[in-house]
């Protein structure tokens, strides 16, 4: 079994080297690490080209900034592993959770696994209250329309059987990827599992990028991909 790790990256010069190191130290031995640099302007691209790219299987450089969803679309398209997982290029999510994430797929029970920051007993950094409220609202709204009972729809950690994720046409270029992919795997009648993960959230001073505008976009995407037939595939 090979695990493809897709790392969408934008302006993460302070953390990208540490993330690569953490991925390599994860409990999953057979890995394919694919970094998609979404036209970083803070020195990340230069750092990758100066030798860091030699430590991973592939680095793809976007010619313009398009967003996380676009970077994932690029990475999913070239993945060769049996299972594909998303890893943000910051230090909020711990690759030590990979084995727990993919175990339901390895056991033949799941096609898709969500890593929940709100389930289980693993450590969580205490950060923004209103972000938590927003996440719960978006997850509840999504659940009402998909009829699945997730606790954390907006999580970064999502693992897929490769044939599942490569069969889906991803339309969203930014953070709308999360509600889009949730709606689409639910409509495919995929076997969806959820496992508790650890979470080390960043502050905006530390580089967190998602904001309130992305929350409104997520609401739009939840409605769009669940209710508007032409966008469901």
From TrEMBL:
GO MF, any single term: transferase activity
UniProt domain Glycosyltransferase 2-like: residue ranges: 4-167
Superkingdom per UniProt: Bacteria
Pfam family of the protein (one): Glycos_transf_2
Alphabetical keyword list: Transferase
UniProt xrefs under CDD domains: DPM_DPG-synthase_like
Name the record gives this protein: Glycosyl transferase
Organism: Prochlorothrix hollandica PCC 9006 = CALU 1027
């Amino acid at each position: 079994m090979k695990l493809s790790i897709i790392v969408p990256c934008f302006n993460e010069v302070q953390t990208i080297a540490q993330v690569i190191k953490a991925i390599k130290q994860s409990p999953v031995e057979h890995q394919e690490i694919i970094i998609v640099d979404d036209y970083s302007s803070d020195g990340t691209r230069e750092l990758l080209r100066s030798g860091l790219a030699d430590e991973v299987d592939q680095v793809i450089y976007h010619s313009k900034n398009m967003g996380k969803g676009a970077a994932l679309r690029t990475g999913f398209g070239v993945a060769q592993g049996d299972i594909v997982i998303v890893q943000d290029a910051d230090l909020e999510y711990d690759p030590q959770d990979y084995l727990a994430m993919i175990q339901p797929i390895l056991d033949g029970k799941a096609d898709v696994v969500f890593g929940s920051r709100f389930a289980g007993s693993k450590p969580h950094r205490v950060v923004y209250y209103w972000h938590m409220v927003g996440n719960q609202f978006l997850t509840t709204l999504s659940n009402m329309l998909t009829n699945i009972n997730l606790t954390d729809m907006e999580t970064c950690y999502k693992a897929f059987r490769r044939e599942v994720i490569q069969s889906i046409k991803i339309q969203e270029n930014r953070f709308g990827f999360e509600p889009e992919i949730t709606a689409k795997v639910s409509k495919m009648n995929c076997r969806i599992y959820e496992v508790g993960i650890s979470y080390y959230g960043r502050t905006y001073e530390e580089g967190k990028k998602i904001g309130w505008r992305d929350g409104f976009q997520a609401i739009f995407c939840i409605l769009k991909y669940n209710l508007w037939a032409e966008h469901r595939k």
